[in-house]
Fold this protein.
Amino acid sequence: MVYDIFIASRSFSKFSEEPLEYLKENGCIIDWNEQDRPFQEDDLIKIISKYNGIIVGVDKVTKKVIQYGKKLKVIAKNGIGVDNIDLDAASQAGIYVINAPGTNSNSVADLVLALMLALSRKLIIIDQMTKSGMWKRKIGHELWGKKVGIIGTGRIGQGVAKRVIGFNCDILAYDIQEDKNFAKKYKIKYYDLDYVLKNADCVTLHIPFNKNTKDLISTREFKLMKNSSFLINAARGGIINEEALYEALKNGLIAGAACDVFLEEPPQKSPLFELDNFIATSHIGAYTYESNYNTGITIAKDLINVLKGNKPINFVNKIYR
């Protein structure tokens, strides 16, 4: 059998040849996203009718796109979060939506730890000052022994917890589904969200973006936090209200923040970029050689499973026909 596959994700198999070779060895004819940006609804509508499978990053796979995908059997997310895919529409159309849980957890957790340290020691602004010829210093904080609030204790949240335990930090955890075994093993306690925000020296977010988590952290929540605290979002844009974050940083409600994700990507003329207590990265949480291989090969194998009529290992929607 020959399968037509469109790869919209610009990072799929970019740093590892094996995932792409696996697809080709199993009869896939590949077309690529040749634009230097994610595909929007209109882009996909024009092409989707040709393909049996598509591999996406943050590209917008809407109900209308799925309706045009008459040959489509599988939508593969080159990562974990599937908030950019209409799962209900895919289910109604009998199309599997697959992802690669756990394959980028270490990469994202590493980035979060790096951002914690960068905020605590003001590394970005000191780097800029030093390179500009200003031999000055800014006082920072130790991460050692601090209270770290982890919102969401799935694989990535747990990875962050394991890392900061090495810094002798106390973990204040919040999740609507508590992992009691993990908490017992690592001596972690769960609290309600307000308690975590009030007491943590650093808060990091590791939850999905949906109607229940949209603007979860906004003006009210910033007023609860310590004015010496830091906030990190390496989960999804939209969980933090960006306007409220700007006001909180500008007015000293919190000491600093770092975001690897934004509601609009790439963000356009964000006032956050004017602030020296804000760090922005370009959705690089999973952007490591190790993660690129692990995610790519997991997606490639499961995509072929579907195309050959087998049930995928990692699917996130119900099939109604």
In short: The longest strand covers residues 3-7. The chain has a mean pLDDT of 96.
